[in-house]
Amino acid sequence: MIFVSKKIFLLFIFFIANGFAQISLQQQFDYSNNLFNQEKYFDAITELKRLQFFDTENIYSFKSNLLIGKSYKAGAKFDEAVKYFTLAEINARSDDELFNSKVLNARTNILRRTTKQSERILNDLMDDPKFLSKQNEIKYWCGWNYIFNDDWDKAYEIFNQNNLDTTLANLCKSVDDEMYSEKFAKYSSYIVPGFGQFYTGEYLSGALSLSWNVLFGYLTINSFIEDRVFDGIMVGNFLWLRFYSGNTQNAEKFAIQKNLQISNKALQYLQFNFAGERP
Amino acid sequence: MNYLRLLEMTSLKKMSSLFKSLLIVYFFFPLSYSQQIDFQSPQNIKLFANFLFCEKDYLRAVEEYQKYLQLIDDDSVQFKVAIGYSLMNDQTNALSKFGLIKKTSVFYDASKIQKLKSQFLINIDSIFYQSADLLINSNSIYSNNAYKLKNTSLLFFDKNLRSKENFLIPFGDDEKNKLSVFYNLKNNPPYKSETLAGIFSAIIPGSGKIYTENYGDGITAFLLTGLFTYLAYTNFEHDHPTRAWIFTALGSGFYAGNVYGSIASAQIFNAKVNFDFNEGVKLFLQEQNYFTPSYDFCK
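The joint structure predicted for all components is written out below.
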């Protein structure tokens, strides 16, 4: 009887010993979490790294890596954030933990504009039968991925599916409607020099482009009419063709610039005025 | 009677067991408390700081080491703080931390040469040369390292270098080969004359660019200037003034651009010579760790 009691007693001591260690690790995690909530990200990372250093049994590996990743993300250190979210994925012990870390990884990739990588992560989640119940959330981030990839049309389609997010769907639609067609600007200028510039609202540039092309076109044709073939080739090659190709490139450049302005304006609106969840 | 004796013996056994249990409690209970991790104990702070240092997270490592130094005076940790700042390229802080190493410390000599390195990286000025001379003339084991750093630093200035033999004195054979090349390049840089480049291009369009080793541009300038000159001439000859003036304008533009471009090309060439030379010396110094000893604290 005494022998049995001794065994129980030793076990009791052992559990108490471990229990105390776990309590201090828990306290350390709570302290780090508190720092994170106070937006003291540098200190939070230090304390979480300290927790990881003393957590020899990796009890807090997932939680600490996830929170370090979040802290780096909040401090716009996206490369480090991705590293720690990936470590959290490796240490995830349940489907929910895996899902959370992968989604955060994808969101960070969206922010650092490595949209191919985020697309791959989100597609993997979409194809995983374990996460069938979370399809809407995955699609939501796919939509954001398209936004950051400047693919407003596809983003609209995703947000519009089953009314996933009508505010974002309407915004994407309006941005897509506002965008200039870069191809149209370029190819219309092939047909009528200066047309692409007029299309993008650059009237002076369009008028100048048209004038130069008319002048050098006239001189080239005139040279051929006067049997000055070599002159015609030179004027045509060095002046007319130069201004003609410059005009199409210029039209395309204007369309790209205008689209960038529209896109940036929309992203700025989303950053400061959109109330829903953002990457 | 036997029953009483048996009872007495059982009680004694029980007492003995109880005593043993109490002994176990006496030894194990404090042990259980000791399992509660004291994250802020000096030893644990130092262990964690070492871990951060080896992870190359120098900013946090330095912060932890400084926390440790508030509790315990440790010159090796003080030295690591300074090295940490130096590795983060925060040379101003590194300099002040190396300055805190006491004369009695085993790291004193090492801190002197590290301090010189920091001064070099902040600015190569009179303070750097004063410190270098002090170290060179001292009995430090690093006096020759200081001599090497001082001589190499001279390569960054336009001043005339001392004689080659004197310049190469502190260096070993391998270093001598490389520094000999740098020395020759410094004394006779392969510059191109801007004036010559301009004159060449004024006489034969494009030749100035060829002189500055810009062959493609040189040939293009020669062909285009020649072509437009010919076209202008032939159009004037055949009484086509509009085209003639257009080609004259184009030819003149290319001619003037070719002269100006050749001068600019010579300037760019010379700037590249300087840039390549300075980068070469910097790379050499980095490879040599600025003639300071390297430390591996993470073995």
